[in-house]
Amino acid sequence: SRGLGDVQQETGVKRENWPITYFSPGDKYMFRTIGKNKLEIYSCDNAFSLLHTQEYTAIDKIAISPLQNRLIFASFAQEHVQGYEHTQAFIQFQEFTGEKLTDLQKKNLNKADQVDAIWSPDGLNCFVWSQSAFDNTGKSYYGEHQLHLFNISNKLFKQIPTYEGPIHDLIWNPNSQDFIVISGFMPSGTVFFDKNLNAKYEFGKNHRNVIKWSNLSRFALIAGFGNLAGDIDIWDTFLTKKVGTCKANSTASCSWSPDSRRFVTAVLTPRLRVDNELKIWKHNGQLLNRVDFGKTELYEVGWVPSKITFKDRAASPPPKEEVKSAQEKPKRLFVMPGNSASLSAMIDAEKKSQTSGGKAITNFDLANQAKESQQRKVPGAKMPEPKKKRVRKKKTDQGEEDDKEDP
């Protein structure tokens, strides 16, 4: 049989298909993709003996469920077009019993130039995120995105409702009972779902594209990184209440501490080779420390794992200064009529309304808002009124034609 040394001699391995080796929970088995359509399963004993070989029409990657008592995995392939040959994208869920493979579910995917499978921490549910590079309708520069959920228990494969536009990020709650999805054109919508696909809450329409959930499940960090301004909102997901905000420009890395009371943001190389730094924040957005790496380059930042069992705690109350400033009424500035500053004030008010907070939501509301999002609105500008149609009446006895406006 083929040995592990043959991995280095494999041909046709693309960067997007790496890695080609995967290990099961507990490192009892090893999976290895061979070429474009073959999967091998080895036993992780001293000899790495080959147990099973499976051939597919095509296979790019696999994703193994973190379940401990059952070995379930998803194998998937994106669309491949070469000349007149076209390979359908698909995802297939199978269970390995130690001797043979058992099929659980297989679904073909349309418009899937890229496919990702993301398992819940308990290993019972799996996101299937498919996207295409082009949008045939011409509505989106980012192509078309679809999100499905597969459940092992009932073997159902359902589509998750999202806003029209790209899917920016999604994440499972560490307790596997809920998840959050950011989708839609900017300002994007961030929606809180339970595992039964019921939309529970919307965290406002903002310029956000990243979600980080704390280890103890209470706090969720929703931010706009990358080419966005770096605004961060921290939410208590137990109470669906915003507990803090802050801003970290040019952030390339962000993670929660093991006790879920702090998080770190960092400006890293190679995203930026100057002004590298890390900042440590309290869970309510208060800056605790800043370390400047301006004279060198910072490549990675991470928390040291802890063996301590931490207990969940509610958010700390804000400092008295913040409470006092929040209670003060904002001062109104006098603006001359016709001054351009009035337009600026309208735009600022529009931005504040986007970040004012969240609201309870249902799947029905989500579908309606997705339709409304198709109407692109300029901040500070009034929506145009619908045009009135002119209806021409038949000629009267006097031989004249009457026109009237259709209300």
Fold and architecture overview:
The protein is built from 3 helices and 29 strands. It has 407 residues and is mainly beta. Strand 16 (178-183) and strand 17 form a beta hairpin. The longest helix is centred in the C-terminal third of the chain and has 14 residues, at 341-354. It has a 5-stranded antiparallel β-sheet with strand order 15-16-17-18-27, with no helix packed on it. The model is unreliable at 1-8 (pLDDT under 50). The chain has helices at residues 320-327, 341-354, 363-372, and strands at 21-23, 29-34, 38-43, 50-55, 61-64, 72-77, 80-82, 85-87, 89-96, 101-109, 114-119, 125-131, 145-151, 157-159, 167-172, 178-183, 188-194, 199-206, 210-213, 219-223, 231-236, 241-247, 253-256, 262-267, 277-282, 287-292, 359-360, 389-392, 403-406. 26% of the residues are buried.
Largest sheet: 5 strands, antiparallel
In spatial order, strands of the major sheet run 15-16-17-18-27
What does the overall shape look like?
globular
Radius of gyration (CA) equals 27 Å
Number of helices: 3
Protein structure class = mainly beta
